[in-house]
Input
Amino acid sequence: MIKRIVTSVLVTVLFSTASIAQNNNQGGDSTIAGIEKYRQALADANPAELWEARGEEMWKQPAGPKNASFEKCDLGLGAGVVKGVYAILPKYFADTDKVQDLESRLVTCMGELQGIAAADATKVVFGSSGVKTDMEALVAYVAGESRNLPIKVSLAHPKEKMAYEVGKKMFFYRGGTHDFGCVTCHGADNSRIRLQDLPNLSKKEPAQRAYSTWPAYRVSQGEVRSFQWRLFDCFRQQRFPQLAFGSEGSVALTMFLAYNANGGALNAPAIKR
Amino acid sequence: MNKTRRAVLQSSSGFSVMALAAANGLFTSNAFAQAAAAAGKPVAEWNKAAFDTKSLQATATALGGGTAVESRDIIISAPDIAEDGRVVPLNVTSKLAKTEAIAILVEKNPNALAANFAIPEGTEPFVKTAVKMGQSSNIHALVKADGKYYFATREVKVTLGGCGG
Amino acid sequence: MAYPMKIRASMMGDKVVVKALITHDMETGLAKDSSGKTIPAWFIQQLIGSHNGKTIFNAQFGPSVSKNPSLEFRFSGGKVGEKVKLTWIDNKGETRSDEKEIA
Output
C-alpha cells in the first residue's frame, strides 16, 4: 500500500516535470500552425454569448429578498455603469474599504442591493453538467461590455498598491508538497504543458494576452470560467490549499496579474481549449 | 418512451402525434409537434437505428440507402488538428445535384453518426456545426442526393491539451 | 429549464445566413460524475427551422454533437425584417423555440 502511494507520487512528480517541456522541438511548426487554425475555427462560434445573454437578463431582473436588480450596482464607474468597468478592475472601493475584483464586487452588490448573504451568493460559483451559475453569467456579461477596451488598472490608492505587492509575493511564492508556485509554470519563456503554451506572466506581452482573454468559454469543460476560477484551478494544480472565492488573496493575485497586463485590449469572454 | 407510443409515432400523422402527446401530458413534446406542424412538417421520430450504427455503410443502410459511393463533390472543411476533441468545428458542402440530406459521422466514436441534416428545397447544401471526437479519427460526410448515397472522408487528429491558458 | 437560443439571421447577397448557439449539456450517457456515477444521456434529438411557415432546416442530432451546440445554415427566399424560427426537442421531451428577425 505504502509502496503504491510512493509510486504514484513519483509518477506525478515525474509527469509534472516532464510535461512542462521547453518548446524547442523540431518539426512542431505544422502542429502549432494546425492548432492555431483550430483556435480560429473555435472563435467563429463562441457559446460564451449564451452566458452573456443570460447575464444581461440577470442584471436587469429583480432578485433576492430585497427584490432588486443590479441596475444600482456600482462596479467602479458609478451606479449601474457596466461599460468599461472590467478594464479598471480590481480597484479600491470606499464603501467596503477594500480592493475588489469583479466577482467579489458582485457579491457585495448581491448583499447590499438584493439582500443575499455572501455565503449563499458564493455557494455555487462554478458551473458543471446540469448546473448553471449566476456568477459566471454575470461575469461574462460585464466583461463582454469592456470588449476591445485597454486594461487600465490603477495603483493610486495605498490599498491598491498593497494588493499588488501581496499578489506579487503570492506569484513568486513556492510551497506545498511539490514546492510549486505560479512562477513554476508562468515565470519563463516558451514553456508549455503538452501542447499548451504557458504564458510568462512576469512579462508584459504574454501577461496581456493571457489576462485579456479571461473570462473564457472552456471547450474542455463546456462552461464559461471566471478569472476567480482560473486562479482557483491553478491553486488546485499546485496542490495548494483551496483558494477561497473572492478572498483578499485571490483579489491581490488578480491585481498583480491585471496590472502587469495594463494596456492590453480586452477580448473576453474568449474561447479556449 | 414506451413502445406503444413509439409505434404510434412511426405510423401516425403529425396531428395524432400531437393528440397523443397531449393525452400523455407531454406538453413539451406537444409544443415541438406544434412547431413542426406550423412549419409544414409532420414530426418524424428520432432515427434511433441510424444513431446506433458503428460504420459508414451501416449508417447509409439504416437511413434507407444502399451502398454509399465516394464522391469528390462533397467538401469537408475541418481543422487537421483539434486541440480538444470535445469541440471539433467543421462544415460540409455538397456540390451534388438534388442534395437532400447531409450526415456527419465520426468513424471511431462509440456510435458513428453524429448528426443528420435534411436539406429542404431552397436551403443550401451546406451545414456547419461542431462535434465530439473521442480520439483521432476519420470524419465522413454522408450525402443523400437524388435518392442515392455518397460520401467523403477527412482525417482529424485529436491532441491532449494542457490547462487552457 | 431551457435557456433562450442565440440566433443571428442576416442577408448575404440573396441568401439568409442563420447562425445559432444553444445552451444544452448534450450528455452522451457515457461520462461519469465526480462520485463515479454515470451521468444519464441527455441530448437534443431534433431541431427544426422555419420561415414563413416553411421548413428551412431539419436536423437530427446524436449525443456526439458538442455541448452547447452551434449551427450555421443558409437559405434563399428570406427578406430583411421577416422572422426565422428555430425549435429543438431533446430526449427528455424538453423543448425550446426562439425567433429572430432577419437583419
Notes: The longest strand of chain C covers residues 44-51. The interface with chain B takes residues 15, 26, 28, 30, 45-46, 48-50, 53-67, 69-77, 85, 87-89, 91, 93-95, 97 of chain C (CB under 8 Å). The mean pLDDT of chain C is 95. Residues 69 and 84 of chain C are 18 Å apart (CA to CA).
